[in-house]
Design goal:
Blueprint lengths: L1 E6 L5 H13 L4 E6 L1 H5 L2 H14 L2 E6 L13 H5 L4 E3 L5 E5 L4 H17 L3 E5 L10 H11 L8 H26 L4 E5 L8 H5 L6 E4 L14 H13 L3 E7 L8 H14 L3 E5 L14 H16 L5
Parallel strand pairs: 1-2, 1-10, 2-3, 3-6, 6-7, 7-8, 8-9, 9-10
Antiparallel strand pairs: 4-5
Length: 318
């Protein structure tokens, strides 16, 4: 089973190398480098140095545009939106929304520009992280797209039709990005994680020919759900990936873990390893210490995640 972590990183190669050597000592295979918009503009060391160092130590570097356009993941602070206000989402009443809209071609174009950069820098895969329906966006791009697909105004559509449209937009976005990668950088592996709440789109996403790898993230560490109830979700994703000849990955939650819930990191991981996905990844390195999304006790939570990573390499043995 391949293993890996997401990593907020650093612009200084000295600090990058220290962390990446430690990752290699843990026998990690893949590194999801969380690149923010500012890393392309003001802190380019993380973009430039990480893939080189990762390859030197024997880890595969994967790019994820964390917080881009205030849409994908945390760390949301978008310079692009400040400079392109026409790319913000617009509510049904015309009100301003703080996040961008991936239906807008300018947003897609910028994603593709950043993909060009990471491909040139030596990243080996691109991760489309948790695209989800933008149910309250009625910007010009959304309205135009609905009109093009259905021949009628978006604001007049009933809720059921609007939901079909929103889900179709998610799949269309994944397809555009994966197609772009394969057309322009064919060696890039294309990876996508869709949340359990978006399982209605799992099958359609897996049908995208240019998408190589699909998975989900059952983040129940801070919830009271019976963790064994994860199994049907994991089985569904595994079956979908198998039907469409995709690599199947799963995520273990090790961020924002609240006091007293640290044992659930290990319990969740035990179930994930037992289900034997092709790859098991941990969000995030060292419990995402030093960020707004850190665990209450990052050392304790991370210690549980380390047990899971070791277990995955042993083939599931405790």
């Amino acid at each position: 089973m391949r293993t890996g972590v997401s990593y907020m990183g650093h612009h200084n190669p000295k600090h990058l190398k220290t962390d990446l050597i430690e990752m290699k000592e843990l026998a990690l295979d893949d590194l999801f480098v969380c690149l923010q918009e500012n890393d392309f503009l003001h802190f380019p060391g993380k973009v430039a140095f990480t893939p080189q160092i990762a390859k030197e130590v024997g880890i595969r570097p994967i790019a994820v545009f964390w917080g881009a356009f205030n849409l994908f993941g945390g760390g949301r602070s978008s310079q692009f939106l400040l400079e392109n206000p026409d790319c913000f989402q617009v509510a049904s009443d015309g009100g301003h929304r703080s996040a961008g809209c991936y239906v807008n071609p300018k947003v897609t174009d910028r994603v593709q520009e950043m993909i060009d950069i990471i491909a040139q820098r030596g990243y080996e895969a691109y991760f489309v992280d948790e695209p989800t329906p933008l149910r309250d966006c009625f910007c010009l791009s959304c309205r135009n797209q609905f009109e093009a697909w259905y021949g009628s105004p978006l604001h007049l559509a009933d809720p059921a039709q609007q939901e079909v449209f929103r889900q179709r937009c998610v799949v269309d976005y994944i397809r555009k990005i994966a197609d772009y990668c394969k057309a322009n950088h064919p060696s890039l592996e294309t990876i996508c994680c869709l949340m359990p709440v978006d399982m209605a789109m799992w099958e359609a996403a897996a049908e995208i020919e240019s998408l190589d790898n699909i998975g989900t993230d059952v983040y129940w560490v801070n919830r009271d759900n019976d963790l064994e109830e994860m199994k049907p979700l994991l089985d569904d994703m595994a079956a979908i990936a198998w039907r469409h000849n995709k690599v199947h990955h799963e995520w273990l939650e090790c961020w924002n873990t609240r006091h007293g819930h640290e044992p659930r990191v290990l319990q969740t991981g035990e179930i994930l390893v037992r289900e034997q996905p092709d790859a098991l990844y941990v969000w995030a390195w060292e419990g995402q210490v030093g960020t707004k999304e850190t665990c209450d006790n990052p050392q304790l939570a991370w210690a549980q995640a380390l047990k899971v990573l070791a277990m995955a390499k042993r083939g599931g043995e405790g």
